[in-house]
Amino acid sequence: MNFRAIPITGVGLVTAAGRGVESAWEALCAGLSLLATDADPELAGFPPIETSRCARIDPESIGAGRRAARIMGHHTHMLLAAVHDLMADAPAPEIEEEDIAFFAGMDSVDPGKDDLIGSVRKTSGRVDLAHFFSDGMNAIPPLWPLGLLNAIGFSQSAIQYRWRGENAVFSAGAGATARAVCEAADSVGAGKARLALCAGVSGVVSARMLARAQRRGVWPQSGGLAEGAGVIRLQKPQDADPSNILGWLKGYSSVRALEKRGGLAQAIRESAQGALARAGFAPEQVDLLVIHAEGEPRADNAEAEAIRALFGDYKPWGLATKGVFGHLWGGSPALDLIMATKALSEGAAPPSPAAEGGFFRDTADGSRRDELKNALVLLQGFDGVCAAFAVGKNA
Question: What is the pTM of this model?
Answer without folding.
Answer: 0.88
